[in-house]
Write a structure and sequence with these properties.
Helices cover 55% and strands 0% of the residues. The protein has 87 residues and is mostly helical. It is elongated.
């Protein structure tokens, strides 16, 4: 593991603390309770919902940038890190 990477342990019984869960929730909310004829149709629907998320960094930040996580990153980030975009 590179020295500039610091893992933040998450409790196993708290999925809401995992930033990726927010993206999964958005996708599930949009595609749930809709019958798709084929797996390809389901994959296309998921892709349509993911597109606005991955096209805009600000959208990703709004979903995954929990205050506690941003604070943790800010406390450990160096000036030359790619993570400085969070500020």
């Amino acid at each position: 593991m590179p020295a500039r990477i610091q893992l933040v342990p998450l409790p196993p019984d708290r999925p809401e603390l995992n930033p990726v869960e927010a993206i999964g929730d958005v996708i599930k909310d949009r595609i749930a309770n809709t019958l798709r004829k084929t797996l390809d149709d389901l994959e296309a629907a998921i892709g349509e919902e993911l597109k606005p998320i991955y096209e805009t960094a600000e959208r990703v930040r709004s979903l995954v940038a929990h205050g506690w996580l941003v604070d943790q990153v800010t406390d450990t980030v160096t000036e030359n890190s790619a993570v400085t975009c969070w500020e």
